[in-house]
Design goal:
Its cofactor is heme b. The protein has 298 residues and is an all-alpha fold. The protein contains twelve helices and no strands. It folds into two domains: 83 residues; 214 residues, no CATH class.
């Protein structure tokens, strides 16, 4: 690594840290002000406090992740600087949870306001078709989240640089079994499934592909099932979520075929946030009233 490459990485990391600190201040100061000044109803203050603590914990996870790339063993052997894929996954998961926590809180408040203005919606939320679709959306949302998190292992292991082809992985849709369960990646000499899932680049990419296929199938089916739901906004959001899934899969395949250029990889990661946002908004359109609203109605 020459000085120019070092400066590029340094300023990216520096900018990331400054943005993280700015985010903390931009959230904590207004949250404290509105909680004290306007006496926000429960459980909003508790949610804001939890998110604020989460931002601080996320900063710690970031430091912990970077520290893994500065181990003396890596320095002594002049190896390529690389952070732990486990810590990278923890840092990314925490970021997703923080974002979804903020988004869920905002959507919940907006939803309660809408239900107060139009209480007739409450009776429609108990319809069997709505209940079934709500369960499907929750399941699809969990799959989107899980697929996004496995992307951290793909990134941390440089798994996008093996099998740069699609839809096959070598001679078939499934790579050879000796590559999927390679004893080299286990520590006890046995073919440990979990060690291969989290440390074997071939297995990490295969798992990410299979989860993506499953998630994509679930999400693109939502607009068709949403036809039975009596809410126009829900049907539109289901279509938007499916479109986001198509875009995300296209970005993932393109990123793989072009040997993971950083701009495409960044767009693919951003696409996961967009897809999570869409499916969270879709779930919000079916959200039942909060405890606070139920208490007010009594």
């Amino acid at each position: 690594m020459d000085m120019h490459e070092f400066k590029k990485i340094f300023y990216m990391e520096w900018g990331h840290r400054i943005a993280g600190r700015a985010l903390g201040l931009l959230f904590v100061i207004p949250a404290a002000y509105y909680t004290i000044r306007y006496k926000l109803p429960k459980p909003i203050p508790a949610k804001l406090a939890l998110i604020g603590l989460g931002i601080g914990f996320q900063g710690f996870l970031g430091w912990w992740m970077v520290k893994s790339g500065l181990e003396q063993e890596i320095i002594d052997t002049n190896s390529v600087p690389r952070v732990s894929q486990y810590r990278l996954a923890a840092h990314l998961t925490a970021a997703f949870l923080l974002y979804l926590g903020m988004l869920s809180t905002a959507i919940g408040i907006q939803r309660d306001i809408k239900l107060l203005k139009n209480p007739n919606i409450l009776s429609q939320l108990t319809l069997p078709s709505v209940k079934r679709f709500r369960g499907m959306v929750h399941g699809a949302g969990m799959m989107v989240f899980l697929t996004a998190v496995t992307g951290a292992f793909v990134a941390g292991l440089d798994a996008g640089l093996v099998y740069n082809e699609w839809p096959t992985m070598g001679d078939g849709l499934v790579p050879p079994s000796n590559e999927l369960m390679d004893p080299h990646y286990t520590r006890g000499g046995t073919k440990s499934i979990w060690r291969n899932i989290t440390e074997n680049p071939v297995t990490a990419q295969f798992d990410h592909r299979m989860l993506a296929y499953t998630t994509f199938s679930l999400v693109v089916s939502l607009p068709f099932i949403a036809r039975k739901v009596p809410f126009t906004a829900t049907r539109r959001l289901a279509g938007l979520t499916a479109a986001a899934a198509v875009t995300q899969v296209t970005l993932g395949i393109t990123t793989l075929l072009y040997l993971v250029p950083i701009p495409l990889a960044a767009m693919h990661q951003a696409g996961s946030v967009v897809l999570l946002t869409c499916i969270m908004a879709l779930g919000g359109s079916l959200r039942r009233p909060s405890r606070m609203l139920r208490h007010l109605r009594r």
